[in-house]
Fold this sequence. Notes:
A: 13 strands; 57% strand; B: mainly beta; four-stranded antiparallel beta sheet; 11 strands; globular
Amino acid sequence: GENVEQHPSTLSVQEGDSAVIKCTYSDSASNYFPWYKQELGKRPQLIIDIRSNVGEKKDQRIAVTLNKTAKHFSLHITETQPEDSAVYFCAAGLHSGGGADGLTFGKGTHLIIQP
Amino acid sequence: NAGVTQTPKFRILKIGQSMTLQCAQDMNHNYMYWYRQDPGMGLKLIYYSVGAGITDKGEVPNGYNVSRSTTEDFPLRLELAAPSQTSVYFCASSGMGQGYGYTFGSGTRLTVV
Lengths: 115, 113
């Protein structure tokens, strides 16, 4: 089955700086790579996703890059703000016609934004 | 449009007791999932369903059962609760209208004592 490794487990950055979280996956058949943000005591929420036919996707201060050859993908957050503090999860899996098959999640990165 | 609704939000069970975690979605999504989240371990897939009448095991199915009699509902059954099942349980759904990303329910915090 799929295995997703996520690093680092904790990341502390100064407000206004950039943050980068990296993930690797093992199954070359995976074609869908979402990122979720989870605030303390809340449900995970999708913030951005990318499919294997695209190398990069950007949404305001958030971007995701995908390297299919190396089987790794990364989340980039620029101009970090206090509200970016949360746990971020990457995931990998197969996307088919009706939706996403069971995703495999990384263990999460606790992002701390220092004022 | 409520999205994904999970009940109950909290529950304490004694070892050996049984319970059903309810999950319902009103987005007409074909795909539904159950995950458990343990501290520092991310989310692990228990069971999932690609449509009414179809269910499949995920990574950690032992001790759980599911059914999918309708598109809307996907209950998770614990038959003989064990301390190892203490966790936060999330139900999720996905479908074409969401760009394939999951919509999660608010979670059920279960403690087995």
